[in-house]
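README: folding subset

This subset contains proteins for which both the sequence and a predicted structure token string are available. Records are stored as plain text. Below is the entry for NAD(P)H-dependent FMN reductase (190 residues), shown exactly as it appears on disk.
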Amino acid sequence: MDDPHVVGVVGSLRSRSRTRVVVRTALEGADTAGATTELLDLREYDLPPLNPDVDDQGDGAAFRSAIRDADAVILGTPMYHGSCSGVLKNALDHCGFEEFEGVTVGLVAVAGGSFPITALEHLRSVCRALDAWVLPYQAAVPRAGSTIDGGSITDRDLRERVETLGDRVVAYRSIEPEPSTFESDQNKGA
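--- output ---
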């Protein structure tokens, strides 16, 4: 069996993004767990605001292909106004069930202030709407200005938590859906 392939999506456009540092750290955890990894930096993709009336906008096809080629995905977002970044949400809007249905997804959110829990909750809802299998384990990085320095996480416990997220996406990359039941057949779209 080939090594699993994990992609990490950076939902920040800042050149010195702390979210990028955190996603790289999570990918290090996936690498240690035996995966090949790839960082998908949204600065490198031309993803205009999604217009569903236009086919293949910008680099949408390339981004979707990179997601489809992954066995698991790590999504990283800064917290903006209590939610995930618009650039990450737009990138996810360019995707659909074909990219995410049944795929294991790990979430990490970064905030300059207190815990970015609402950003994680919003991102979890989006992923669940795409029928992704979102890990219950997630990583929140509060007060990033005091825990990230020089391109690395300086708080040892926090670094370990983020690396564990990478480990977990590898460990649970192939969650099989439960067999169909009478109830699931009756509850379309749930």
